[in-house]
Design goal:
Layout lengths: L43 E5 L4 H12 L3 E6 L3 H12 L5 E5 L5 H15 L4 E4 L15 H22 L8 E5 L3 H4 L5 H21 L5 E5 L15 H6 L12 H12 L10 E2 L10
Parallel strand pairs: 1-2, 1-4, 2-3, 4-5, 5-6, 6-7
Helix pairs in contact: 1-2, 1-8, 3-4, 4-6
Length: 286
């Protein structure tokens, strides 16, 4: 192989947006291997983008650790039902809430439906995101720009604002950013910009909410094998996704979910305003 060439690590494949996990080859690994230990016993978690990918892995792990889970998702009903079934097999309740959270009113509805079902929110995971590739800045339309920002960062403001009245001292907010927030991305300029905004949002909100006893942290994953990948990139890029990090492969959602569990439970009680970086070994000093 020529120096600097990227190794193919899975078969080429593409999907239409938003992407369906059940159609991916190979299937992402999302279920935790280790038995639960009750770290979230009796808690209620709201996870956006929880139907598949990292969100699914987080929802299932939270359930395994004792939490009831509400899942916000766009329209991937088959994936959402699969996640619900896996949450319920651990004896926990799962509420599915289809909604386009690029609109503020829908964000409010997601929170209200969660509270109506469970009475409160102990852990909020702002995770939903989308992206499109663009070779040049000039290729990013205003429509795409607004959709990316509305989904990836405006929804974080709207959902968190709506959820805070139902969160008590000891609550945890976890925001999904990305390695692109720290090193940028030449073909995902608008996406990387929203992820950088999430870092600033997390650090600012953590200070703002410290006196209320609500911790705010984030996770900034690197290349992870999720439906967003085959739904966003061409076949050749999908086949090589993750091959350029030190560990030479994309991560599995199950390898990322424990970072969210750590930030959700009391193990991280002395952490706020911080980010964890499950990214395959890329050092970004953030």
């Amino acid at each position: 192989m020529a120096k600097g060439a990227k190794k193919q690590i899975r078969q080429p494949q593409e999907q239409k947006r938003p992407g369906i996990e059940s159609k991916m080859k190979p299937q992402p690994v999302y279920e935790p291997e280790h038995p639960g230990s009750g770290k979230l016993e009796g808690k209620v978690a709201l996870v956006t983008g929880g139907d598949s990918g990292i969100g699914r892995a987080v929802a299932v792990l939270f359930a395994k650790e004792g939490a009831d889970v509400a899942i916000g998702y766009l329209s991937e009903h088959s994936d959402a039902k699969e996640t619900k079934a896996n949450v319920e097999k651990f004896g926990r309740s799962c509420l599915l809430i289809p909604a386009d959270i690029s609109k503020e009113n829908n964000c409010n509805k997601v929170v209200q439906k969660t509270v109506k079902q469970f009475g409160r929110i102990d852990v909020l995971v702002n995770n939903a995101a989308l992206h499109w590739e663009a070779e040049k800045l000039e290729d990013i339309s205003t429509k795409q720009l607004l959709r990316t920002f509305s989904t990836n960062i405006f929804s974080f403001f709207w959902i968190t604002k709506a959820a805070l009245p139902y969160m008590k001292e000891g609550g945890s907010i976890i925001n999904s950013s990305s390695v692109t927030a720290y090193r940028g991305s030449p073909s995902l300029i608008d996406y990387a910009s929203t992820k950088g905004a999430i870092v600033a949002f997390t650090r600012s909100l953590s200070t703002n909410l410290a006196s209320r006893g609500i911790r705010v942290n984030g996770v900034a994953p690197g290349p992870i094998w999720t439906p967003l990948i085959p739904a966003s990139f061409d076949k050749k890029r999908v086949a090589k996704h993750g091959s350029d990090v030190p560990l030479k492969r994309a991560g599995e959602p199950a390898e990322v979910a424990p970072s969210y569990l750590f930030l959700a439970c009391d193990d991280s009680s002395y952490m706020t305003g911080q980010f964890l970086h499950p990214n395959g070994g890329e050092v970004i000093n953030g």
